[in-house]
Design goal:
Elements: H1 3-11, H2 15-38, H3 45-67
Helix pairs in contact: 2-3
Length: 70
């Protein structure tokens, strides 16, 4: 899925749903970091992608706070 498609999908979500997705992504990121430290992580690039997704979701939330949307 391209970045623009991800952004469109994320922007359709409500604030509460975004916060839940952020929490889930952080938990997944923790698990990936744990696997990386033990040497069992198969796709190291997944950590990078997940960090970017979290940042995108946080950016959308902050834009809505500033703009007063939803």
């Amino acid at each position: 899925m391209k970045v623009n498609e991800k952004l469109q999908d994320l922007r359709k979500l409500e604030n509460a749903e975004l916060e839940i997705k952020i929490k889930e992504a952080k938990e997944e990121l923790f698990g990936l970091r744990l696997k990386q430290s033990t040497g069992t992580l198969e796709k190291p690039n997944k950590i990078h992608e997940l960090r970017k997704d979290i940042a995108r979701m946080k950016t959308i939330l902050s834009e809505r706070k500033i703009g007063g949307e939803k």
